[in-house]
Design brief:
This protein folds into 2 domains: 87 residues, 3-Layer(aba) Sandwich (Rossmann fold); 44 residues, no CATH class. The chain is globular. It starts with 6 loop residues before the first helix and ends with a helix. It is mainly alpha-helical and 132 residues long. The longest helix is centred in the C-terminal third of the chain and has 11 residues.
């Protein structure tokens, strides 16, 4: 496994062949395309994991952004293949369902659900757990 930021270290070894059976790029929707390709070139198969509806990569140069650097390979793949090659994970484990509802309705057509273990979490219940 490799993070996109460390992929350059494995991209320039002495051998030219692939080194992995599969490349898994997590947070691919936030990774610059060049960094993603660096990891993908070392495996014949790949999985891009991420959410193109969340934060994009950080590109500080306006010229680079206008030139397309802010568009990720993940975003490009979603545009070309859409649901034919992607799978949405519909259960989230991070927040109360009332907080989650807006993003579920506005960004994910109401398909996002809160897992029962977090659906009713409140700040009070979380703080009470810390005291125990």
């Amino acid at each position: 496994s490799s993070s996109s930021s460390s992929s350059q270290k494995i991209y320039y070894p002495s051998s030219n062949g692939p080194f992995f059976d599969i490349a898994v790029v997590d947070e691919a929707a936030q990774a610059l395309e060049v960094a993603t390709w660096a990891a993908l070139l070392k495996a014949p198969r790949a999985v891009l994991a991420g959410d193109h509806l969340q934060l994009p990569p950080t590109v500080t140069s306006e010229a680079a952004a206008k030139g397309g650097l802010s568009r990720t390979l993940f975003e490009r793949a979603m545009h070309v293949y859409g649901s034919r090659r992607s799978e949405m994970l519909t259960v989230q484990y991070r927040m109360n369902e009332k907080i989650m509802k807006w993003s579920s309705d506005e960004m994910y057509c109401g398909r996002l659900q809160a897992h029962a273990s977090v659906a009713g979490h409140t700040l009070e219940s979380l703080l009470a757990g810390e005291r125990e």
